[in-house]
Amino acid sequence: MKVPYIPTDAPFSDEQRNWLSGFMAGLHSRAIMGATQAPAAGGAQVEAKYIDIVYGTQTGNAEEVANEAADLARAKGFTPRVNELDAIEMDQLATLENLIVVISTYGEGEMPDNAELFWDALSATDAPRLESLNYGVLALGDTSYEHFCQAGKLIDTRLEQLGAKRLADRVDCDVDFEDAASEWLNASLPDAGVASAQADTAAAPKKKEKSGYSRKNPYLAKMVDNRVLSGAQSAKEIRHLAFDLGDSGLTYEAGDAMGVMPVNAPDLVGDILSRLGADQDTSIAGQDKPLGALLSTGLEIMTPSKDLIRALEPLAKDAEFTHVIGHGDKEALDAFLWGKDTLDLLNLNPDLKIDPAEFVSWLKPLQHRAYSISSSPKAHEGEVHLTVAAVRWTYNNRPHRGVCSTFMADHVPTGASAGIFMSPNKSFRVPENNDVPMIMVGPGTGIAPFRAFLEERRERGATGTNWLFFGDQHRETDFIYEDEISEMSTSGLLTRLDLAFSRDQSQKIYVQNRMAENGKDLFAMLEEGGHFYVCGDASRMAKDVDETLHKVIETQGGMSVEAAADYVSTLKREKRYVRDVY
User: Fold this and answer.
1) Whole-structure pTM value
2) Tens of pLDDT along 281-334?
């Protein structure tokens, strides 16, 4: 049976609800749900049928999916129990009967932060046998990445190895799903029905946002501030962007992300139309929009899709392209594709004639981009702020641009509007206890959520220590929000500030170097109950910071490597070491 594709770590859809409805109905019909007796409204005894729903997420979206799954389960008469994966110990897992795992894949096939400890224990040689467990995995991913839904695949396989039985085939979710999911659901799913009398009082499934705005239905928000923060001589273009939430009803908290629906660059759309020998009004069979509109707002035309790469390779007649594809060397392919967009691949063979409809079939849907929010709603009522680096480069004498960053920078000036929606990230929050220390590591645009955190603590009147590690290339041109940070330092809100501008001296200095230099104080603050936050680049900075944190704890705590790792694991389990990395 073909499994539907469902969008990557995205808001819960009607199709997903239907899948889970069928999933729940299948559980009930097979009479495998654990049951206890509970009083009904009229005093009668009904079965309380339990199901455990666990999630692993980097940005918070999989948690929303898990909560939606719980609402569906409750509406069908089940009693759901929702937890993060890391909250489940192996001895507890061994006692469960039924489990739904909702998990996204982070980076290059990695487990999200709040699933690492669970996976380490599950994959260990001493993991318990799970013959009494029935499970299903809803994996969130993106086929543009090599290790599509790898986290879900690993957990699915390992549970099977330990003797657990699948309730349903794993669903590997991609960004485009509607048609395939609808076809699969219509052909395969039975009527859900009502599992028990509990359904009579169950609440209807909740929407992701009270406002009703989402990825599929973004709010058209007016830009009220769009200015460059970085200096004129900076190698970067970092902007402060502020949107008016108007009467949308959209709400957020410090630590959340915001999704922005971009429009592709008009000049790139025009160049691709010319390359195809088509015009804006060219109709495409099976599409409800003309070609120009599809290329502007419907399809991803910047980053070449896997389907486009596979289809073009034999047609391009380019020796290097054929070589890297033929040898299956990912690093070589990445190097070949570096800096190239879809048009660059089309131009590998200038004489190649391409049918517009065939070209469209190779492209993926244009997706939103998510950005860490850099404001506290308590400090900026009715507004939401972003801190965004506008990405630009030149290849083959033609300007290239990041899809969403330059859409906002160039085409959404003050007074113009863009489609937005909120993405809650409940695991990335200011400490509830206003007295505990807060340590923040956020170089470059990674400062975004920590501007929000500091504003939040100021508005709360929090007294806990606030320590920020910030850096970039040059202090003169790249110290974004310098005036605000200086004011926060002067007022005492920002208790401590350590700066690392890598290229202001012969030897490069990064935030992890400053951490190591101040290891004694850093460890002391952790011992006082401090919370440690990281935001920014996942591939290098976050890994270097994590390695330095382990070394600081090992050195300052007089611990072995293993003991330091256990200390860090405890920080993660207590939600005192959390990351917002990308």
Assistant:
1) 0.87
2) 999 999 999 999 999 999 999 999 999 999 999 999 999 999 999 988 889 999
Q: Of the candidates 223, 261, 235, which has an alpha carbon nearest to the alpha carbon of residue 444? A: 235
Q: Using alpha carbons only, give the angle 233, 237, 242 rounded to the nearest 5 degrees.
A: 135
Q: What angle do CA 443, 447, 448 make, to 5 degrees?
A: 145
DSSP string across 84-146: EGGG--HHHHTT-SEEEEEEE-BTTTBPPGGGHHHHHHHTSTTPPP-TT-EEEEEEE--TTST
Using the predicted structure, report yes or no on whether residue 67 has a pLDDT greater than 90: no
Tell me the C-alpha distance between 350 and 386, whole Å: 40
Taking 70 as the threshold, does the pLDDT of residue 10 lie above it?
Answer: no
Going by the DSSP 8-state scheme, the letter that residue 176 receives in this structure is -
Q: What is the DSSP string of 197-216?
A: GGGGGPPPPPPSSTT---SS
CA distance 48 to 318: 63
Please give the C-alpha separations between residue 271 and each of 117, 343, 489, in angstroms, as whole numbers. Answer: 48, 8, 49
What pLDDT is recorded for position 170?
Answer: 85
**How do strand 438-441 and strand 417-423 relate by DSSP bridges?**
unpaired
* Alpha-helix runs per DSSP H in 362-461: 403-411, 448-460
Strands ordered across the beta sheet of 369-372: 369-372, 257-261, 417-423, 219-228, 238-244, 383-389
Amino acid in position 34: G
What SS3 string covers 513-527? HHHHHCHHHHHHHHH
Structural contact between residues 417 and 434, judged by C-beta atoms closer than 8 angstroms: no
The H-or-E segment that residue 243 falls in is strand 238-244
Rounded to an integer, what distance in angstroms lies between the CA atom of residue 53 and that of residue 84? 9
CA distance 19 to 25: 10
| Token pair recorded at residue 375 | 């404001």
